[in-house]
Amino acid sequence: MRSVSARRAVAAAALAPLLALAAPALAHADDVTPSPSGSVFVPAAANDEAAIKDGDSPYTDNCAADATTAKSNDIKVGDATVGLIEIRHSATCGVAWGRIQLTEAGKQYANDQTTVAITREGSDATYTCTPTLDKSDSLDAYTCFTNVVLLDGGSAHASAVNPAFVASPGAGEHEVVTESFAE
């Protein structure tokens, strides 16, 4: 039978790799901020290798946890409002993304003819998605969200395009856009 000190040495050796993995997170413990859900959030700046980039999911590094709707615009077909195009924004991560919410009246537009986009103005950064018939229970809508664009002092706008949509003033044909948003 091993002595207590021998068992402790074996246990310490087994835990060493786990502690080494935790060390970088512990080094930034003062940078940790609680998210609204009570889970712990470490901002991307705390670890350059994990920094948010154009094209990441809004759920990367928990950016969606503090998201707000920065700008939105109703989507109309004729005189009926069938949904909403939004710019979602995370101040913590410094990113924005586009999201569409189609109501039951707009369900027929959750198809491959509808494109949602977020565009960082003055750059080539544009990301798109297409809503599907997978209804979001939490939003009670047919929805999709784009990947993120870094704002970094710039501005962005979101758009939704479908042959049936009534275009926003100044937008392209069948395109509904939000106002520009900058942090």
Describe this structure as you would to a colleague.
- With 183 residues, the protein is mainly beta.
- It is 13% helix and 35% strand.
- It is built from one helix and 13 strands.
- The strands form three sheets. Strands 3, 4, 5, 8, 9 and 10 form a six-stranded antiparallel β-sheet that branches.
- A hairpin with a 5-residue loop joins strand 6 (115-120) and strand 7 (126-129).
Itemize the secondary structure elements and their pairings.
Blueprint lengths: L3 H24 L5 E2 L5 E2 L26 E10 L2 E11 L4 E8 L12 E6 L5 E4 L5 E2 L4 E5 L3 E2 L4 E7 L13 E3 L3 E2 L1
Largest sheet: 6 strands, antiparallel
As a whole number of angstroms, the C-alpha radius of gyration is: 22 Å
- Binned, the helix content reads 10-25%
What is the beta-strand fraction? 25-35%
Structural class: mainly beta
What's the N-to-C terminus distance? 65 Å
Q: Give the overall shape, derived from the CA principal axes.
A: globular
Number of strands: 13
Task: Name the poorly predicted regions.
Answer: 1-48
